[in-house]
Amino acid sequence: MSVRPPQSLARPTFSGFNVLEYELMAERADALGRHGLKVEKVLERLKVDAGPGCEPKLREDLLDSAADAVWAFFIQREICGLRDQRDIIRRYEIPKAVLARVGIVRKSGP
């Protein structure tokens, strides 16, 4: 009679797929972090530069860039499997003016 250790104590076997999946997960997490930092920066700039007395064109441009950054962040979160955005909206204090513009495709050029 032979005795073998439980499967939980056995050495994990790494196939090429597991290594690739691990690398993809790490890349997704890194991208998510980069997008989060970008959202923080653009929202801070919006708070500082688009205050009272700001010219309307600058405010519109800041709102558009903030909406684009937030949209990219939402998409990256969905790629990572995080579908609920309510916590992020509260945590980053994303203004309603920005949320109203998320996902809007603007015309570029003349």
Taking all residues together, what is the mean pLDDT? 87
Which parts are unreliable, with pLDDT below 50 for 5 consecutive residues or more?
none
Distance between the termini: 82 Å
Strand residue percentage: under 5%
Encode the helix/strand succession as letters.
Answer: HHHH
Total count of strands: 0
**Compute the gyration radius: what is it?**
22 Å
Shape: elongated
Structural class: mainly alpha
Describe this structure in words.
- The structure is a single chain.
- Helix 1 (16-49) packs antiparallel against helix 2 (56-79).
- The longest helix is centred in the N-terminal third of the chain and has 34 residues, at 16-49.
- The mean pLDDT is 87.
- The radius of gyration is 22 Å and the shape is elongated.
- The chain has 4 helices and no strands.
- It has helices at residues 16-49, 56-79, 86-91, 96-99.
- With 110 residues, the chain is mainly alpha-helical.
Task: Summarize the helices and strands and which ones pair or pack.
Layout: H1 16-49, H2 56-79, H3 86-91, H4 96-99
